Amino acid sequence: MSDFLITHFFYFSIMKVYVVSGLGADFKVLERLQFPEHCEIVFIDWLIPEKNEPLSAYVERMAEKIDTSEPFCLLGYSFGGIIVQEINKIKPAEKVVILGSIKSDKEKSKFIKTGEVTKIPRVLPLGLFNNRAANVYSVVRKLFDPKNPKILQYFKVRDPYYLKWSVEKVAEWKFEENPNVIQILGDRDLVFPIKNSKPNYIIKGGTHLFPATKYKEVSKVLNEIF
């Protein structure tokens, strides 16, 4: 088969895209995104971490759903972007795309770096992440988008240990940038400020919730990528 035919067969055949959403978020935040017709979207649900589970072990469990017998791509949003990059190390993908996420620990915001240096996330009481605690609302708003009044509709995974563990892992994360990772950022993202990164694509007016609020612009980019 010629290279031309191989390339076109690959392009028009069904490509599975495994997707991991943001920290504490289900897939509602991504539900309006439109992918090319040849893409089959497979969502990977968040798992509850085991007690003191290392990120590497957690990533292996998250990756169990991925079928490596056929080509696949990975897409992650926010903390999910970190997870899919870790998955890519053990199960290499054809393409890795991250939305509202970072490609290395060098791109962390000052706020997250402070947590890394001070180890504050480790000593935060579990009760701070309790679903009934008043503090949860302010934590979630700062984590996603303080200007979006519908923010809690995306925040579905509320297990306190999962939330505390995840915040710790984001603060502690160390990673060397993979130049092949495709990064899409909003220019008004407060969680992962664009000034710390050199994204492949920029969503104008996009806050951290840009996959939901700027879904048409993001869908256009995804159709270019895939």
From TrEMBL:
It comes from the Bacteria. InterPro entries: AB_hydrolase_fold. This is Pimeloyl-ACP methyl ester carboxylesterase. It comes from Chryseobacterium polytrichastri. The lineage of its organism: Bacteria, Pseudomonadati, Bacteroidota, Flavobacteriia, Flavobacteriales.
